[in-house]
Amino acid sequence: MIEFNLNYWKNKKILVTGGTGFLGKALVHMLKSLKTSKLTSIGSKDFDLRNYKECVKACNGQDIVIHLAANVGGIGYNMQHPGTLFEDNILMCTNMMKAAKDAGIQKYVALGTICSYPKNTPTPFKESYLWRGYPEETNAPYGLAKLMQLVQAQAYRQQYNFNALFLLPVNLYGPEDNFDPSSSHVIPALIKKFVDAKKQNHKTVTVWGTGKATREFLYVEDAAEGILKATEQYNKSEPVNLGAGFEISITDLATLIKKHINFKGKIVWDKTKPDGQPRRMLDTSTAKKEFGFVAKTPFDIGLKNTIDWYLQNYL
Prior knowledge:
Rossmann fold, alpha/beta, single chain, 6-stranded parallel beta sheet, 12 strands, two-stranded parallel sheet
């Protein structure tokens, strides 16, 4: 783990929204090792952050807010629930930042999404490319709702001198990911498919799309480190990418997962289903320059850890 300035954290009262989720658990675990003055982790069962008054209650008495809470899922989930995803995320994000500003919070860390980038963004994605076009259609409502945090953060800094940051993590993966096929992202979805196929002696596994699209993946512990380093050191409203700086095609990803699980059958591509954004890979130079963040977990190791966790906990 990269080193943190413990003096920065020791007297801080910190609220983590979405603290019971995939990224939230990793972040909270890391924060506990920093021995903060008070750490509050909340989930959807604790507060309805779509409601401004609930957000005010959550922010009361805090110094730092790290806003991870989101309604999120894979391509299929986005296609089935575009209105809900837009409503839930824009309400949660807008209300939380307003409540934090009104409560006099010292620092606010907003998590965006790579889905906010335009559909045909040149790779690697630079933060300055965010406004060059409309996002990929299947996740545009979610991506644009999350992107409004950047507009809000910059407006609040200009008018109220409110210290809000906006971070853009790439697709996350790792142990304790969401493996529910109705809402999971590509890595956990594929892991479950191949494990189920092997267990049931199927001859094939069907995967959405053509396999030509590329993705970049950031190990969840690396993401947590990046967020905390930004919280500690970064004090600007310009957006910052958090990623691992590589891309892999869905074909190569599926083949790698098939190999790790030792599935002997064939992969069948369902080309009637969408690929999503054609390519994804971030330029991560800003994070390195501004707060020294570089992802450390090799993808093959992180993937093996994720598969091993799933096999140990779900079978």
